[in-house]
Amino acid sequence: MDTAPLALEGRCVLVVEDGWQLAHALKLLLERMGMVVAGPVGTAKEAEALACKCLPEIALVDVNLNGVLAYALMDRLHALGIHIIVITGYEELPLSVEKYCAALHKPFTAAALQEALEAAAAR
Predict the structure, then answer these.
(1) Phi and psi of 86, rounded to 5°?
(2) Predicted structure pTM score
(3) What does DSSP assign to residue 3?
(4) Whether 71 contacts 94, CB under 8 Å
């Protein structure tokens, strides 16, 4: 990714991921895509506070945050009009996640992430 995708340039994205290595890697990759990154944060409480403060357009949310499932957080962010991209290590997800923009199964590629972000930005 030598140039930032125009559809993503300057858009605010909230990163909710409790694994510090993945969270850091996502932040760097998103910044290289030209996005404004809020976070990363590792809990639902931190995510909600930051979302209210920075009003992101898109949120990347890990399903499992330190043993707590984040479906309620995703629903609250979605209700605020934030486009949700689910990040998961689980093989199967409940049907309720179909209302979100995309689901990325770990490990995922930078190209898959970019595709999901562009789809979310186009909504």
Answers:
(1) -80, 135
(2) 0.92
(3) S
(4) yes
CA distances from 92 to 78, 98, 101, 104 (A): 21, 12, 16, 11
pLDDT by residue (tens digit) across 32-85?
999 999 999 999 999 999 999 999 999 999 999 999 999 999 999 999 999 999
Per-position DSSP letters for 48-77, written without gaps between them: HHHHHHH--SEEEEESEETTEE-HHHHHHH
Q: Whose CA is closest to 121, among 33, 17, 11, 32?
A: 11
Per residue in 22-40, pLDDT (tens digit) is 999 999 999 999 999 999 9
Fold of the CATH domain 15-108? Rossmann fold (3.40.50)
Distance CA 94, CA 89 (A): 13
Structural tokens at position 11? 């858009």
